[in-house]
Amino acid sequence: MRHVISLLIENESGALSRVSGLFSARGYNIESLTVAPTEDASMSRMTLVTGGSDDVIEQITKQLNKLVDVIKVTDLNEMPSIERELLLLKVRATGAAREEMKRMADIFRARIIDVTEASYIIELTGSQKKLDAFLAAIDPALVAEAVRSGACGMARGERVLKP
Amino acid sequence: MTLTGAEILIKCLHHEKTEYVFGYPGGAVLFLYDALFQQDGIRHVLVRHEQAAVHAADGYARSTGKTGVALVTSGPGATNAVTGIATAYYDSIPIVVISGQVATAFIGQDAFQEVDTVGVTRPCVKHNFLVRDVRDLALTLKKAFYLARSGRPGPVVVDIPKDVSAAACEFDENVFSTELSMRSYNPVIRGHHGQIKKAAQMLLEARRPMIYAGGGVVLSDSAEELTRLARLLNVPVTTTLMGLGGFPASDKRYLGMPGMHGTYEANMSMHHSDVLLAIGARFDDRVIGNVEHFASEQRKIIHIDVDPASISKRVKVDTPIVGNVKDVLEQLIRQLESGAAPNPANTAEWWKRIEEWRTRQCLAYKPSTELIKPQFVIQKLLEITGGEAIITSDVGQHQMWTAQYYRFEQPRRWLNSGGLGTMGVGLPYAMGAQLAHPGKTVACVTGEGSIQMNIQELSTCRQFRLPIKICLLNNRYLGMVRQWQQMFHGQRYSGSYMDSLPDFVKLAEAYGHVGIRVDKPGDVEAALREAFTTHKNELVFLDFQIDRSENVYPMVPGGKGLTEMVLPAEEL
Fold it and tell me: Is B237 in a helix, a strand, or coil?
């Protein structure tokens, strides 16, 4: 089953490789991984999308907790949570496709953030499923380049991930 | 006070009461060596290969419970140390390895003797650090020692660039004396009260209880607590390869070692128990064999471990108790003592079954007047040392025979590489143990394959006058490999035959030691006496020419269940 794991980690050089090294060494999947410093620059927040049986997920969270640089770990599947991902999509926008692209972007509430005579860059934020749906809805022949950020997640309500 | 990085390291080692630094100098650690030269209190032990430096520090730690320290240079110094670091990691041994690094300005430039030590060692350390600023050095070293010995112990590497060891900064001695707190690292010490109550109840109600104790009992110095608990409940005890000595072998509740080369009674009891109390053990594949087969019999499992990730990793556990083994055992004993006494009738039937299993005499072997049986050598070694020696071993058949036939009464008397299975640890382990215990008898049981993996240390032993007794069980084969090839690979002895062996007697003499070759069973005892009494203060290399065809039994073949043991042929 797909799990979204959120963690706080010391913002030290090499901390990311400790996490990615753990996953490769123990044969766990990483579907996506995003990381950046938090409002407190001494810490980074990481969102990790992985998959596995309950036993595997239990081991993953335990092994992550065991890393000395890891401050906190939560499995967002265990609580109501929000998950967002960013997509930047460069598409060919000439002739009839130019208008069609604009329309599709509006339907999905995406924004066009770069325009040239022959191309658009479309920005879309949403759940992984929404991004997948958007990509499925447009003509793949028109896609020049796609960049996805991987998911960022957070628990709903007043629950916070703090040291 | 202004100090250089090298001087700060010395301050830290003095604060940690480090007695020995096992190391090998080189370009990147010249400032560190210079500071070592100019101090008193720490003795530097010059090894002949960095791998042995780490093993010796590890052997020192295993035999004392204190943190071992090794010092190596950058590049090849650090990569040579990796096997030693991984060996300590897999057996949770507290050591701190200081490695030199090229100067910070050269890092990433493919400089001479540069290697990404933090990157190379990351998968086999508890934690590691690269110190880029001398002002961070004192706190980093303090963290390194704290991490190495606390929680589940393990090796910590501190990589110090040459310019950092040379640079000076303001140093505040209080860094070492103030309590350290890390927001990302808080090992659990005491067990959860509710879980302990539950465990006590399960043990009292059990009809077929069993204690399975591992290295955690030795690491946390809990042999006394384990013994009290087992006697209080009158429960059978098995100790793993890493747990030998954690429970006295002479106690009638002791069933020997479990697992691949465990005793018949230990494996049968593990499998048929209804409540299994696992203490500081990790259900390793060499201990429980096939996981599905193990799960085919219903039993409740209580698991005490300081590392939550060890619990329910391979085998589902019913009652997990996270905490330091010693603290949890004390809590559990208190809980049991405050309630009703255990009812002996509950386990009477169980003990009857165990006694029946014992009658199989699974460790019996056919004595010989022609050929030296390895088991016989170990039994004689036990007799002559009175069970009082610190015994180290390498990896292979000789290791298993020692584990089976040297009956350990006390913890920290048995040093070997259990998790990683590193050939070549025996001699450096003996060095570390002998330095830590100058008056004690230290013997290294080894094979002709293993001993040659760190044979150069005979030179270190000479330099530091270490009176280690090496007992080589020489069968001219890589015996354990040969045994598997005989049993599972159609007797095709691919690469397992040792040709062109040195004359070990002459070799020992060349290094300035005493060498004795033993060919006849009748000479074994006299040779051991000569080594342990006549040459008490010298290193003696005993080359026992043993029966080449001897195998280790019982044996659970790889992938088989614990009860599917192969017993010696004459027994079947």
Answer: strand
- B2-177: which CATH number, 3.40.50.970, 1.20.120.790, 3.10.20.30, 3.30.70.100? 3.40.50.970
Annotated active-site residue B50? The verdict is yes
Q: Tell me how many domains chain A contains.
A: 2
What homologous superfamily is domain B374-552 in, according to CATH? Thiamin diphosphate (ThDP)-binding fold, Pyr/PP domains (3.40.50.970)
**pLDDT at residue B569 in the model:** 63
Residues facing residue B31 across a β-bridge: none
Contact A68 B130 (CB under 8 A): no
Task: For chain B, give percent helix, strand, coil, nearest 5.
Answer: 45, 15, 40
End-to-end CA distance of chain A: 28
Q: Closest to B122 (Cβ–Cβ): which among A21, A55, A70?
A: A21
Provide the CA B83 distance to its chain's centre, in angstroms: 14
Cα–Cα distances in Å, from B105 out to A29, B101, B186, B307, B454?
37, 11, 35, 39, 36
The whole-number pLDDT of residue B285 equals: 92
Amino acid at B330: E
**Which CATH number does the domain B193-358 belong to among 3.30.70.100, 3.40.50.1220, 3.40.50.2300, 3.20.20.70?**
3.40.50.1220
| pLDDT tens digits for range B287-305 | 999 999 999 999 999 999 9
The b-or-e profile of B115-138 (16+ CB within 10 A means b, else e) is bebbebbbebbbbbbbbbebebbb
Return d(Cα B88, Cα B124) in angstroms, integer: 9
Write the CA distances from B214 to A52, B226, B278, B511, integer angstroms: 30, 11, 8, 38
Q: Which domain holds residue A22?
A: 2-79
Q: Which residues contact B219 (CB under 8 A, 6 or more apart)?
A: B65, B92, B93, B153, B280, B325
How many other CB atoms are found less than 10 A from the CB of residue A103? 9
Chain A residues with beta carbon closer than 8 angstroms to that of B313: 59
Report the length, in residues, of chain A. Answer: 163
Over residues B525-540, the pLDDT tens digits come to 999 999 999 999 999 9
List B19, B113, B498, B525, catalytic entry: B113
CATH number at residue A44: 3.30.70.260
For residue B236, what is the DSSP state?
-
For the cut 80, the answer to whether the pLDDT of residue B570 exceeds it is no
Token digits of residue B465 = 């006058």
Q: What is the pLDDT of residue B568?
A: 82
pLDDT digits (tens, 9 = 90+) for A26-77: 999 999 999 999 999 999 999 999 999 999 999 999 999 999 999 999 999 9
CB contact under 8 A, B309 and A59: yes
Question: Per the residue annotation, which of B480, B485, B538, B565 is the catalytic one?
Answer: B480
Catalytic status, residue B242: no
Q: How far apart are CA B400 and CA A107, in angstroms?
A: 71
pLDDT of residue B571 exceeding 50, the answer is: no
* Side chain identity, residue B311: I
Distances (CA, A) of B87 to B121, B171, B423: 12, 34, 10
HEC secondary structure over A3-31: EEEEEEEECCCCHHHHHHHHHHHHCCCCC
The residues that bridge with B237 in the sheet, in sequence order, are: B211, B254
The pTM score is 0.96
CA distance A62 to chain B (A): 5
Q: How many A/B residue pairs have CB atoms within 8 Å?
A: 39
